[in-house]
Amino acid sequence: MIVSGCPDAHELLRALDGAGEPETEAHVRDCAECRLAMAAFARTGSVTDGGTLEVEEALAWIEDVQRRLKTSLSPGDRLGRYEIRACAGIGGMGVVYEAYDPELDRRIALKVLRPHHRGEGSRRLSREARALAKLSHPNVVSVFDVGSEGDRVFIAMELIDGSTLREWLDEVRSRAEVLEAFIEAGRGLAAAHERGLVHRDFKPDNVLVGEDGRVVVTDFGLARHRFVSDTDDVTRDGAIVGTPAYMAPEVRSGGDVDARSDQFSFAVALYQALHGHLPRVDLPLMQGARSAQLGWRLRRVLRRALDGDPSKRFRTMDALVEELERCRAPRRGPAILAVAATVGSLAVAATSTDDTTSAHLSPTWTTIASPNAPP
After folding, report:
1. pLDDT confidence of 226, banded at 50, 70, 90?
2. According to the model, what pLDDT value does residue 164 have?
3. Superfamily of domain 78-158, CATH level 4
4. Rounded to two decimals, what is the model's pTM?
5. Helix residue ranges per DSSP H, 142-231
6. Which of 32, 130, 257, 323 is deepest in the core (most CB within 10 A)?
7. 41 contacts 7 by C-beta, under 8 angstroms
8. What CATH number has the domain spanning 162-360?
9. Is 201 considered catalytic here?
10. Catalytic residue among 8, 151, 161, 201
11. Does the structure show a pLDDT above 60 at 284?
């Protein structure tokens, strides 16, 4: 039972798995902070889904998110010239707010670092601002300002009214809609690559889908210029950066990283959206009924982009996008992919005229099966 204030981590975890008290459910409906904590944890996977998190680890994770939210800015607070309107999201290094810029009379997104990330985080945030300042593309988020006040470092950027690509996929989507969204995201990545920038952390959570349908790649905090070695940036301590579930093999092994690594991450996310799970080591790549319904051209694109050898992937992101555009062409008997999910899971139903199937989304990385698997 809840004594006062927000539920503790145990109760939020129970609510996330559908076993919470009615009081908790009522509280969460009215508490933006608790919803953010649950949504942030849900992206790592539920402990009852066969994921890799132990209960103790899951509880510690939620408690950490709650601590971060309790020390965050509140509506009405000011940071520099910006007025905080609402908390929009939380990540590993900071919090994103909806804010207002009175000088230019516009709403913005304000990413603010947690104080104890000021050293490494400041370098990453400055790098993100520099990276985005090099780009002007409808599928890449625009940056307006970067600054600091007291112990807080922040970046002001374009506010996209909508949701993340992961949240967008929670709704029923046709295969055509999924392809169109990824084609737009791919164009954003291609634009970054043309400017010499490698994103290094492409995943559905770092893509936004606006209410107007525009798809925007964001969160370039780990981006690196292709002509700058890792020994010259914030990864010089030897740490492997990115999200393991979407990392290319060369990234996970500490090898050379370039635009083809982004291709691999992009293809993992697209495979996940179309199949309902990440590529798995215990299943041949692009096998099974769901893959068969994608059509030979789309299977070929995914297989090539997911090749464990970077030299066998597409020469450029533009080339990959061009192939996906060809996959959009109408074909006989098109399969419809229904994408439906609850908090922390994503189910994809591939339907034809005579059967319906669904699959649970695995929240953890499982190594790509074989880069040379047969079609």
Report:
1. very low
2. 94
3. Phosphorylase Kinase; domain 1 (3.30.200.20)
4. 0.70
5. 165-168, 175-194
6. 257
7. no
8. 1.10.510.10
9. yes
10. 201
11. yes
